[in-house]
Design a protein that fits this description.
The chain is an alpha/beta fold and 527 residues long. It folds into 2 domains: 286 residues, Rossmann fold (3-Layer(aba) Sandwich); 161 residues, Rossmann fold (3-Layer(aba) Sandwich). The chain has 19 helices and 16 strands. The strands form 3 sheets. It has an 8-stranded mixed beta sheet. Strands 11-16-15-12-14-13 form a 6-stranded parallel beta sheet, with helices on both faces. A hairpin with a 5-residue loop joins strand 1 and strand 2. Helix 7 crosses helix 8. The longest helix is centred in the N-terminal third of the chain and has 28 residues. The N and C termini lie far apart (57 Å).
């Protein structure tokens, strides 16, 4: 071969090498975070990595592979089951789960029994101080802790008010303590929440727990001054936990104030809402900026089929834990009353119901009244505040006014809170005796979340709902929720029909279909 031929061959090899390098750089930069035009039905296992204990874990489809490949390894396995749990037979494990109403644990290759005490979960003495006020772990905590502390990704489905925040909070704090200190704007644990109120409430739990264990938490959400949140992130050498709403977090990411390359635990609280049409692109971009081998945990009270395939893209071989029956289910501690009324008569019925429930004693019982739209809530507040000690919360109010209303309701200076669905998820206010649904929500999942504001932490509550002709499309689902809870189903409600329409994906519409990928193709022969 002549000199010219050798040069050409050398040039060709160099071009091939450069193209290959470009493809690898592009793949690493994307981190799997491109928006797909089709739903993915299973998690893509890109590569396996080992934690400090030597156990192998995979990478999620959405995440930055370059950080995972070049970054430091981190420990995610902390759990060593006590001998009393290791020695349990399969039937004994099932009996323990039955006692806790744990109805589903899917995906474990080696079974992990629920813990019966806080000490069994493997937390440090400092962290156990956080649980001192509780007698025993709640069901979702008892089953989640062995799984998350063993390093697995997990989806936890449990009723509101069941202790989900500490179910992911305690393992997150454990993981933080195993790593070097963080820098300002570089959290180790990132918690995403759909509303400001839920973000603030989750941050409060982390603040209380962090005080006992020396971990700082900052809450990042829209509607509050950016400079204050920036100052909080810089104070004390940085915050290891950031609890955020997606919009404000993305603002800070674009400004370079927050970098997510050190996030080793990602939590989606109220995950069904986080993967909804409005949030999914934001969540994809946020998760794509974290390392692909992070630990991802999702919690929610409801888990509709339409988001399950999407969720798998953000996780790797997740374990699914369910407390209670599958499908929409309200807490047994809530008395549900559904009244079918004419739309124009709702004001008259509301006046009657409020007089019935709230007008007997000297002190008005703490009550939540839900409307559907911001204007509807504002109008309700204007009318009711003439006679009742009421405050209001909806999306058109400033953050200061929203916080002022919630604070007044918590302290009891205003015993009635009129709200849109911004207060339906995660708002944990003790001693709410009544929930009144002036207008039925757009989904039955939101109905379950709304009424879950009462009957919390072992207490009982009552939810009274007005149902009209405009809500008839959700009659079948509501009938199922009432029957599962043993509540009375009014005959007028069944007249709308009890058929439950299969939900379509909010992202992919009627073309979305759940496919069992394990089924083999059938060969068809044409004559």
């Amino acid at each position: 071969m002549g000199k010219e031929g050798k040069r050409e061959k050398k040039k060709e090899k160099k071009e091939k090498k450069e193209k290959k390098g470009k493809r690898e750089r592009d793949a690493n930069r994307d981190g799997g975070a491109r928006e797909s035009s089709k739903p993915t039905t299973a998690t893509k296992k890109v590569k396996t990595t080992r934690d400090d204990e030597g156990q192998t874990f995979g990478m999620a489809a959405v995440g930055d592979r370059s950080i995972a490949q070049s970054g430091d390894t981190f420990q995610r396995v902390f759990y060593d089951a006590p001998a009393s749990l290791k020695s349990m037979s399969a039937s004994e494990v099932q009996a323990a789960r039955d006692a806790l109403a744990v109805t589903q644990v899917d995906g474990l290759s080696t079974d992990l029994a629920p813990v019966s005490s806080f000490a069994d979960a493997g937390f440090s003495k400092e962290l156990l101080r956080v649980t001192a006020q509780f007698k025993t772990p709640s069901p979702i905590q008892a089953q989640s802790w062995p799984i998350i502390m063993s390093g697995h990704d997990m989806v936890g489905i449990a009723a509101t008010g069941s202790g989900k925040t500490l179910a992911f909070g305690m393992p997150a704090l454990t993981q933080i303590h195993s790593q070097p200190p963080c820098k300002p704007g570089q959290p180790i644990c990132l918690v995403l929440a759909p509303t400001r109120e839920l973000a603030q409430q989750t941050a409060k739990v982390f603040d209380d727990a962090g005080e006992a264990s020396g971990v700082r938490c900052v809450c990042v959400y829209g509607g509050a001054p950016k400079y204050e949140q920036k100052a909080q992130m810089k104070a004390g050498g940085g915050a290891a936990v950031i609890v955020a709403t997606p919009g404000r977090l993305r603002d800070f990411m674009e400004e370079g104030v927050i970098k997510l390359d050190r996030v080793t635990m990602l939590v989606l609280d109220e995950a069904d809402r986080m993967l909804d049409l409005g949030f999914e692109p934001e969540i994809r971009a946020i998760a794509g900026a974290t390392r692909a081998d992070r630990q991802t945990v999702m919690f929610s009270a409801t888990w509709p089929q339409s988001v399950q395939s999407l969720a798998s893209e953000f996780m790797c071989n997740p374990i699914k834990v369910r407390i209670g029956a599958e499908g929409l289910k309200a807490s047994q501690s809530i008395t549900q009353i559904v009244e079918v009324v004419e739309p124009q008569d709702k004001d008259r019925h509301l006046a009657r119901v409020m007089k019935q429930y709230l007008g007997k004693g000297k002190e008005v019982p703490r009550t939540l009244i839900f409307g559907l739209y911001k204007k509807e809530c504002a109008n309700l507040h204007q009318r009711l505040s003439r006679e009742w000690p009421a405050v209001c919360i909806h999306g058109d109010m400033s953050q200061h006014d929203r916080e002022k209303s919630v604070d007044a309701f918590k302290k009891g200076t205003s015993r009635i809170l009129i709200a849109t669905d911004v207060a339906a998820r995660g708002l944990d206010i003790k001693e709410v005796e009544y929930v009144i649904n002036y207008t039925f929500p757009l989904t039955t999942e939101d109905y379950v979340h709304r009424i879950g504001r009462t009957g919390r932490a072992g207490a009982t509550g009552l939810a009274h709902t007005f149902f009209t002709l405009h809500d008839k499309a959700r009659a079948g689902e509501l009938v199922n929720v009432l029957r599962k809870a043993g509540a009375e189903v009014p005959e007028e409600l069944t007249k709308f029909g009890t058929h439950v329409k299969k939900k379509e994906s909010k992202l992919y519409g009627a073309h979305f279909k759940d496919v069992d990928m394990s089924v083999k193709a059938t060969k068809i022969t044409f004559d």
